[in-house]
Design brief:
The chain is mainly alpha-helical. The longest helix has 25 residues. This is Fructose 1,6-bisphosphatase.
């Protein structure tokens, strides 16, 4: 097995972990809405999740661990995806915020400021910001 095969395998596993986290968030309120389904399907294509992997993850999203990205900017990108899924039905219940907080901790955000980060992320999504604006605002929220 070559180094590139190992890299591709690790990259693919990280994508599966991210995708399964999104599916878990979508299922947190008991059902997947049409908006969530559309987002999940698009994300599966973007992350190169095969049809078989898609079905496996949809059946058992707990199978894959969350693999936190090393770079802060990549953590924020994943937070953006997760927060969008939480807010996909435009209703923020306490369970959804709790789930997003758990995933944010798993992504590597610190317990001391995770609630502030989650609140900021959700407030930006209420404003319907794009990824670039989200990243800028999250990186500059303490200034």
């Amino acid at each position: 097995m070559s180094i590139s095969d190992l890299f591709d395998s690790g990259f693919k596993n990280r994508n599966k972990g991210h995708f399964s986290a999104i599916v878990r968030v979508a299922l947190s309120d008991g059902a997947i809405t049409p908006e969530e389904k559309e987002f999940i399907d698009r994300l599966a294509r973007n992350l190169e999740i095969s049809k078989d992997e898609y079905e496996e993850i949809m059946d058992n999203p707990m199978k894959y661990p969350i693999n936190p990205p090393y770079l802060y900017i990549h953590r924020l990108e994943r937070l953006y995806d997760l927060a969008r899924m939480v807010y996909a039905d435009h209703v923020l219940g306490p369970k959804q915020k709790e789930i997003l907080t758990k995933f944010s901790l798993a992504l590597g955000f610190t317990p001391s400021n995770v609630h502030y980060i989650v609140d900021k992320a959700l407030s930006l999504l209420v404003l319907n910001v794009d990824l670039d604006t989200f990243l800028f605002e999250m990186q500059h929220m303490n200034k």
